[in-house]
Amino acid sequence: MHDQREHWNELYQSLGDKKPVYDLWLDKYADILKASRDMPIIDLGCGFGNDTLYLSERGYKVISCDFSPEALHRLTNFIANPDTRLFDMREGLPFARESAQIIIADLSLHYFSWSDTRNILADIKRVLVNHGYLLARVNSVKDINHGAGLGTVIEPNYYNNAGSLKRFFDKTQLAELFRAWEIAYINEHQISRYRKNKILWEFAVKKQA
Question: Could you say which architecture CATH assigns to the domain 2-206?
Answer without folding.
Answer: 3-Layer(aba) Sandwich (3.40)
